[in-house]
Specification:
The N terminus is likely disordered. By secondary structure, the chain is an alpha+beta fold. It is elongated and about 70 Å long. 34% of the residues lie in helices and 15% in strands. The chain has 10 helices and 9 strands. The protein folds into 3 domains: 98 residues; 83 residues, Phosphorylase Kinase, domain 1; 131 residues, Transferase(Phosphotransferase) domain 1 (Transferase(Phosphotransferase), domain 1, Orthogonal Bundle). It starts with 12 loop residues before the first helix and ends in a 9-residue tail after the last helix. Helix 1 packs parallel to helix 3 and helix 3 runs parallel beside helix 6.
Length: 345
């Protein structure tokens, strides 16, 4: 499609049709994840090259931003002198990059993996990170993108998570991300998703964990409310997992439905232990001395500095907006749902 940031070029209709045909071929190659080279589709000396470059750069920037890749407009200007020599072209690309990043982050925030449906952004991941071949995007949110990947060294499928560009820009954020990942890798519990690897590739940190085929609890709750016996079994399993982590000196700090995975057999697993998040509605602060976690899912006791040991699957959704975290005394399960059985209250 034509770039939203660019006005329609003043070309004859036949010439414009030829340009659009080339751009469409380039776009289809991007969607097939072939990593097409712009220089091949718009070689030096070709007619209307600047127009084609602007269109193709815009297309490529969009899929790269959706895939969470880090890049700068300068990288395109250094490749294409036609664009670097035109102040209007530079301005168009800068504005396009800014608009695309805002749109993608807004979509990720509005339809993050806490919602019933994941964001349909159709991102094109890089083909490989170290020994891991990236295959499909299986989840994404404001913090990062999760890929199904293949570990070529051990011949197994894994889940690989990369933060979005810019979310770990704060001083020490990358080191904290990797340190917490390594700490989590020491946990050995059947209901905790094991971490296999963590590191950096071309300056971008990543985390590799076991691949849990299934869904997360946020999706499950959006479709149906689990029975009370199943809820009790899940709570017991998750509480046991948290106890194991606490015994190792590790506190999750962000237990919420999207961080609970459910496999095809109905077993639950905790994931995302203490990983730093961007400063959004779901921000997790990891600065010593500050309140940490997702505010909408925090136990009310945290707001008044009282000990908190609660874990529940019976309550309504989290508080949002200006709604107070402590609207009144907490309700018992049977007060929230009359179908609750006395033995589980």
């Amino acid at each position: 499609m034509q770039s939203e940031c660019c006005s329609a070029p003043e070309l004859e209709s036949l010439a414009w049709r030829d340009v659009q045909d080339l751009v469409q071929s380039f776009r289809l190659a991007l969607l097939r994840r072939e990593r097409p080279m712009i220089e091949v589709y718009a070689p030096e000396g070709s007619a209307h090259r600047k127009v084609m470059l602007l269109e193709m750069v815009h297309e490529e920037m969009e899929v790269r931003i959706k895939a969470g890749e880090c890049f700068a407009v300068d990288s395109y200007l250094s490749r294409f002198e036609d664009l670097a020599a035109d102040p209007n072209a530079i301005l168009e690309l800068v504005e396009a990059e800014s608009a695309l990043r805002r749109r993608v982050l807004s979509a990720a925030g509005a339809t993050s993996i806490d919602r019933a449906e994941p964001a349909d952004l159709s991102p094109r991941p890089p083909s490989r990170i170290g020994r891991y071949e990236l295959q499909d995007v299986i989840g994404q949110g404001a913090f990062g993108v999760i890929y199904r990947a293949w570990d070529t060294a051990l011949d197994r499928a894994v889940a690989l998570k990369r933060p979005r560009c810019g979310v770990l820009d704060a001083p020490g954020a990358v080191e904290r991300f990797l340190r917490e990942a390594r700490s989590t890798a020491t946990l050995r519990h059947p209901q905790i998703v094991p971490v296999f690897d963590a590191g950096q590739f071309e300056g971008v940190p990543y985390l590799v964990s076991a691949l849990v085929e299934g869904r997360n609890l946020a999706h499950e709750l959006a479709v149906r409310r689990p029975g009370f016996r199943q809820s009790a079994e899940w709570v017991a399993a998750l509480a046991d997992a948290l106890q194991h982590a606490h015994e190792q000196g590790i506190v999750h700090r962000d237990v919420k439905p999207s961080n609970v995975l459910i496999d095809k057999e109905g077993r639950v697993y905790l994931t995302d232990f203490g990983l730093a998040k961007s400063n959004t509605v779901e921000a997790t602060l990891t600065i010593d001395g500050h309140m940490v976690g997702t505010p909408a899912y925090m136990a009310p006791e945290q707001t008044v500095e009282l000990p908190s040991h609660g874990l529940s699957l019976t309550g309504p959704g989290p508080t949002t907006g200006d709604e107070p975290l402590l609207p009144g005394p907490p309700l018992l399960p049977h007060q929230l749902n009359m179908a609750s059985t006395g033995g589980l209250v």
